[in-house]
């Protein structure tokens, strides 16, 4: 049973997305080439600073425009949702003519809503590490993909009035850190997917219930797959799902905070204007018009900002106390990941994972 019309989602998003900034062809080509090069440069800096090493081939980032970002995210959304629907089966989703009609109508509505939300986000996202790609029949392609949204990066550096080369490298440092997290820690991708599947399967629902919830939470699920929370909590969470969402929030806070920590720690040595960039970028995060603030709240983007802050504070304190090598124990297994309580109390994680012998009597 189809609950989201993926073609409708793509077509709606591409139709509604705003065009990028005006850039002449030569400048556009230069930006694309430079972003590819800087992603490779940033990967070296991240590897040297963190002491982590990718266990699969990476290569330069894939550079996309706004419609390309929408298509990529619909593909990722589909890669996560469809296997869950298969697990649900017709017994839970319902069958017969009524269910088929509900699916046909509801899937188009949900596709339009998902596309509209992705069109909004497509004008704001600078880059991302795509965790979930369509299956590769040959098994030869990387399991994830780093994408950078060139028009958004160019637009942001213009708005902030910062050095383009420095800003592009700064963005690449953050996104390459995410790629390192998942390519150096192969079990982490499966763990995140397991959490998402567990969350989506944790509530009994029929076809009508599922469509209603996906209408409310479609954009939030898409954001959660990429590392955020969105409205997923309020849209589909039940009391039984609280523990699952705490684990999702903890791992995403770690990933986002680690990315922010690395980009700012590496920055002073390789990005001369990093202080200016960080100050202006942070101010941009905090100021927006009323409509934009409302949309950010509805889409869970403010919650994502808290993830950056709490996660970065966790990484800073742990590294300051025990050093980078000991901090990297966080990537050993799912058991060494911090809980949500430990994200907010880093000493508890240090005592549990790094210095368990220190806990006596």
Automatic annotation (TrEMBL):
Pfam families xrefs: Zincin_2
Entry keyword annotation includes RNA-binding: no
Gene3D superfamilies registered for this protein in UniProt: Zincin-like metallopeptidase, N-terminal domain
GO molecular function, one term: hydrolase activity
NCBIfam families: DUF2342_F420, putative hydrolase
PANTHER family named in the record: HYDROLASE, PTHR39420
Name under which the protein is recorded: Putative hydrolase/uncharacterized protein, coenzyme F420 biosynthesis associated
Organism: Nocardiopsis flavescens
